[in-house]
Structure formats: structure tokens, C-alpha cells
Amino acid sequence: MLTVEDIIEATGGELLSENGRTFKGVSIDSRKISEEEIFFAIRGERFDGHEFLGKALLKGSGTVVDIKQGQLPEGKTVIYVKDTLRALQDLAHFLRMKLDIPVVAVTGSNGKTTTKEMIYGILSEKFRTLKNEGNLNNHIGLPLSLTRLNPYDEAVVLEMGMNASGEIRRLCEIAGPTHGVITNVGSAHVGRLGSYEAVRAAKLEVLERVSVAVVNNDDRFLMQGVEELRNFNAEIITFGMNNPSDVMAKHLKVSQSGSAFMLETVKAEGVWVSLNVPGLFNVYNALAASAACVSLGVGLGEIKTALEKHKSIPMRFEIMNVKGITVINDSYNANPSSVEKSVNELVRLGAGGRTVAVLGDMRELDAFAEKEHRAAGDMVREAGVNVFVAVGELMAIAAEECRKEKGGKPAPDVYIFPDADAAKKNIMDILRQGDTVLVKGSRSMSMERIVEGITNAV
Predict the structure, then answer these.
(1) In whole angstroms, how large is the CA radius of gyration of the chain?
(2) What structural domains and CATH numbers belong to the chain?
(3) For 383-392, how does the pLDDT look when each residue is reduced to its tens digit (9 = 90+)?
(4) Reported pTM
């Protein structure tokens, strides 16, 4: 329960009117607010919550605003602050710091959401655990998630995303994490940050505030940054498959439906784990989750039980069989490193039949866009993909590069479409029974429409 006194103490706000009620939660969406929630009128790039105050107060019990003008509604609590977003963040920090519990922050270029879900699955078997739902991982979504904390919670796991330097640092200031997990460092956001070193430095901001850091020991570029950044006091726990690490997967066996491996630590006898999600990258996600939970005192047997319950997350390497065609729906998002990982898994899973890579533009690469898309075209050819369906203006550049004969593997059959809708209309003319198809692209490309075109085909 949130009291008016809590909100004012956390935000330094001024009480303009009060109805004497407490609140069960916080909302920033006037369409979804419930009767016992307080509305924070957030000003964003595309919207201003103050424009929806009337609708919010029809259902909600109060509001936090940054304007004093206008007639105050009767029977509603109204609190004035200088900055409503900052007030939301301050309230989240206030609620978090009331509890002396572990908070696990998960960041990285790829695998953040899956790793967060795996950690949550493990911890929630033993502790009352809060997580940020879906992809609420930014300066608005993360504090909004923390406002759901209650006195009975025993652990928190939070995915932290970023688009610029300093954003992870700010999220850590809000959340006060005790444990930090860095899954890997790749090319996501390199266009915005300007270099791979800047991307790495932004991810490493999480180490400034935590007491335990979990890092991927097989990611040489990440580990180089960890070694260079020795001005932190965190205990380092490593995970990996290739380099000797604190938590390791050994004797790996992979299949189309998942993988099995011996999960070992330096302090405990290993256990066999059977993951029900495919992809080598998911083994790394499981190792990251395991390492974080081992540091919190969870036994390997408990970790095994929870990992084996984990299910695929929609649009994240989700495999389905449609009319004799194996479809890998990985359409949630894309960057150069995640595309390469997914294409390699496509080739492995599709051995014995045709492999079809349906790839959409990778956005947010800015000055790196042409270089990275040409590299993607080279990678598709060298991986041995049989059919390349390029979707978007940038992937057309990749297709152009893919068609070039460079003394390696022969070029695949190439099809180019301007957008997902055009590809959707034509995809079934390209596919045939026995194919294994990967569909992947940046979120703004709406590549899931192509998956719909396959699954809804007569």
C-alpha cells in the first residue's frame, strides 16, 4: 500500500488536495489505470500524460503532476512535483531501499530477457520474487516495475536496457542492485554510442554499484573490459563453456528441441540439465542465470529443476512446425551479433533440408549500417544458408553482398522485398515442405507479419 506520506517523502512533492485514501499501485496509462492506483502524468517525446488527466481521474484515485494551474478535481489526491518522471524514479528508489533484499540487474547486448526470466524462474521457486514484466527495462519501465514491491518480497530481478552511455548507471541509482549480470557485449546500439568500446563501457556501468558481478568468460571482448576496469569492489563470478570458469556447461548435447549438459561449479558436484529451448545462446543464458543464483545460495539441484521448466518466450527463437515447414520465429529484435548466432543455429537445426533466412533490416546502426549489413550478407553465404530473403532497404545491401562470389561457399538463392508486408504476400511461393525457416529483424520491421503469413497460409 502506498500512502500520500510515502509519495511526498520520496518525491519532495507538494500536496494540493487529498481524499484520505491509500493506493495499491502506480499507473502511467489512463486507459488501464484501476480505481486504487495513482496516476503519474509523465511527459514523453510522443505524449504528455497531463493531457489524459481527466480520463485517468475518472477511474484512478489521485495523480502526480508538474503543473498547478486549473481547477482541482473533488475527492482526488493531487500532488505537485517539479518533474513527474524524476518523481516516479524517486518513489521507486524509496520503495526499493525500504527492503534489505538482493536485487539482480541483468544487462548485455543479447539474451537479457531470457536470462532475466530464467533467473526469476529459479529464484521464485525459493523466494518471493519480483521481476520487470516483458521489456519494461528502461528509465520509465524499470521504476514502474519497482513500484510493485511490497514488504513480503524477498528478491528482485530486473532487466536493464540502454541506448546511451550513463543510462545503466542511472537505472542502478534507482534500483540499487546487489548483483549484476552481463550476458555478453555485441554490436547492439553501436551506431548510437559510436564504437564497440563505448558499448562495452556502457554495459560495465553496472559494476559500479554491485557487490557481485556475473560475467561471460567466453566473451573475450567483455573480459578485456572487466580486466581493464579494476576500480570496482565487486566479487567476480564467471560462466562459460570454453574457458575455465566458476560455472560451466560440459558434455554438451544439442538437438532441435533443446540441449543437455552437465552444469558444474568449482564448489559442487555437477548435475545434468535438459533445456527445453533450442540454441547454443540459450545454454549461455542458462549459465548466466545459474551463476547469479549460485551466488545467492541456490543449490544446483534447485537450479536444474527450474531451468527444465523454462519455456520459449514468444518471438525469441520460438520454434513451430507449420504444414511440414519448421519455422523459427526470432522476430522480436535484431543486431549483427544476434543475427549471426541465429543464422548459425538455423544451419545447424536445418541440416538435411533447405535452410531459409528471412532477415529484416537491423536498425540503430547509424554510420555502421552499411558495413554491418554487408558483413551480414557475407555471413549468410559463408554459413551455408540455401535461401536468403532480404526484407528492407538495408538488407538489400546485404543481399547484394551475399550474391558475390568470393571463393568461399556458393551464394544462396536471393529474394528481395521492400518491407514485411511484401514479403508476407510472397513467402509461400518461396517455401516448400521440409524447409527450416528463420524470421528475424529489428522490432520496427514487424517481421512477425511474415510468420503470420506462413502460419495462416491455406
Answers:
(1) 24
(2) 4-82 (3.40.1390.10), 99-307 (3.40.1190.10), 318-455 (3.90.190.20)
(3) 999 999 999 9
(4) 0.94
